[in-house]
Amino acid sequence: xxxxxxxxxxxxxxxxxxxxxxxxxxxxxxxxxxxxxxxxxxxxxxxxxxxxxxxxxxxxxxxxxxxxxxxxxxxxxxxxxxxxxxxxxxxxxxxxxxxxxxxxxxxxxxxxxxxxxxxxxxxxxxxxxxxxxxxxxxxxxxx
Length: 143
Known about the structure:
Elements: E1 12-14, H1 17-49, H2 54-90, E2 95-97, E3 103-104, E4 110-113, E5 116-119
Antiparallel strand pairs: 1-2, 2-3, 4-5
Helix pairs in contact: 1-2
């Protein structure tokens, strides 16, 4: 659960603006790129529907065109939403506290206090590096 770093409130809104814009643009781009695939899908549908005669060719062609367009639109939308999510989490202040109005990003896995960089303690066991002279020689707190 995300908490506001200023007032420590749990009432935080996740805005996801870039994710929404990315999904919309990705869907539009996917549909645009899918036009040639749509024509190919319609051609294949027409050939498959040939067995059922003229009505089968019509239905097969329309089905192939619709499925081709939807497939490309969904793929483009998913790619755009994924890219937008990365932008939201790493570049924009994606969260807003409903209590104090503060806008902030998710904290990263590093901590900076008064301009001094401090790495967060690792989650894995580093004792095997203690005697090996691992580059960086981890302090005793990490061993």
